[in-house]
Write a structure and sequence with these properties.
Length: 168
């Protein structure tokens, strides 16, 4: 009479462990890819917010100039012609002539009250913001914003442009 083995053979065990290992490694790889993509998407969203904020700062400066009766490009057209750093707290750094313009080594800081600023206080971030304003016509400015940061072993950037009109 023949005896029946009810256990697994060594070959069946090796194949089962291999299939299980491939499945676990595949899931781990997918998790790592999803985590990386989520971080990058979050940073791109933050960069888009910072670009929008720069447009709002320039628009606010234009409106303030118009309300005070000054030339509508006063305070940002000459300073930002080659690139400048703008934030709500410090404006265009007109008070400190040494920091006018764009400095490639300056990163935005997140202040305690939630504003992004180039002022020294606050938590350093990975973002840099360069705002360039050029006059294309008499009553039209082109505002360009470049947000740069380093993430996932690569330099990242977001570029946006908007046209700004005079309130004449």
């Amino acid at each position: 009479m023949f005896r029946q083995n009810r256990g697994f053979t060594m070959l069946e065990m090796i194949v089962a462990i291999f299939i299980l290992a491939v499945a676990i490694i595949g899931c781990y790889y997918a998790f790592v890819q999803i985590s990386s993509a989520t971080a990058l998407i979050s940073s791109r969203l933050q960069a888009a917010y910072l670009a929008h904020e720069a447009f709002e700062i320039v628009r606010n400066m234009r409106d303030s100039n118009w309300l005070s009766g000054e030339e509508w490009g006063e305070g940002f057209l000459t300073i930002c012609a080659v690139g400048c750093q703008l934030d709500y707290k410090a404006g265009t750094y007109e008070a400190d002539d040494t920091s006018l313009g764009y400095d490639i080594d300056d990163y935005l800081n997140l202040s305690a009250d939630g504003f992004y600023t180039y002022a020294i206080e606050g938590t350093p971030t990975k973002f840099k913001r360069k705002v360039t304003v050029s006059s294309t016509e008499d009553h039209l400015f082109k505002v360009s914003v470049l947000i740069e940061w380093y993430e996932l072993n690569a330099e990242r950037e977001l570029f946006a442009e908007e046209e700004l009109y005079d309130w004449y």
